[in-house]
Amino acid sequence: MASQAATLTSAPSGSATLSVPGARTSGWIVSPWFDILFFVNVFWLLAFLPAYVSAEGVPHVEFWQVHFIASPHRWITLFLIALDPDRRGSRAWLFVLIAVGLAAVLGGVQLATGGLAALGVSYYAWNSWHFAAQHSGIVRMYSRKAGGGRRWLETYGLRTFILYAGIRLIPGFDRLLGLMLLDVQLVDWAVLVIPAYMIAVELTGRPTHRAPKLLYLTSVCLLYTSIIMAAHTQQRMLILALVAATTIFHSVEYFAFLTHYARRRQTHGSPGMFQKMARHWVMLLAWFLVSCGIVFSTADRMYFTLWYAVNLWASFLHFAYDGLIWKFRVKETAKVLDIDLPSAGAASAVADT
Predict the structure, then answer these.
(1) pLDDT in tens, 213-254
(2) CA–CA gap between residue 219 and residue 249 (Å, rounded)
(3) Residue 330's CB: how many other CB atoms inside 10 A?
(4) Is the CB of residue 216 less than 8 Å from the CB of residue 35?
(5) By the 8 A CB rule, do 165 and 192 touch?
């Protein structure tokens, strides 16, 4: 497969912008180097290094992960909704209603129980589903870029596998399965059939023509398989390292996705503030991450209770909003993301897309 390297061209405003010749047929979302670094995200393998986690079980990257990566990736969705009319559409009222409704729920729980611990299970479950949905969405992007793929498997099979990996880490999960007369060890192996089958499907279907998708799918499947196997063999320190790596993987992937969106948004969609911002996206994103890291780490240290509640509210909004604004079946969204179905010689390959 002949992939073409990204080139820098001059935007109408005079600023440099990234363009990828032949991206519609190469199978890469942006370009080989960009996808491998930020979507395939091979750096998660560092979690296997013994020094990744301290003797106390705290990942050495935790401070940077929490304040400069994970929290900002949630808050940036709120800014995107506020600044980009194409993501709001005619549904501004719905986003406001969701924000007010979730604030009311958090306030009600706080008043009723004196804290927000009661929302812990809801947060964990929704977060696990959110991770699964995002990875599934990226796989579907690769399928629609290069053809092929089985929609039901990539949508529901992958989500089931990733969701199970999250649930598998819940304390007492093995006992719960025991009450259902199920052996957790056997369930682990049964679930691992899903990623093995997905990769086998890609390997038997002209993999050289869909190498970007195969690389991404392999990376994701290995990551969550590692989590299940670490739980299977009760390796606590490895679990802690992999959970941190998973959070970083997910957050970096989201920033990469938004970078691709901003790059395309420079010349597509409605004019306005966000389109102007998109022309300077990398600089603005760097400024956003540094600013959030400073503000969030300070708030966490000085106003922990208030900050915890506000950050939890933003996290729930991130989960809800992302499920609304990134619908690939919406023609305008697919067009701006450059994931319309290939038209030349790929009709049979994408019949199930």
Answers:
(1) 999 999 999 999 999 999 999 999 999 999 999 999 999 999
(2) 10
(3) 12
(4) yes
(5) no
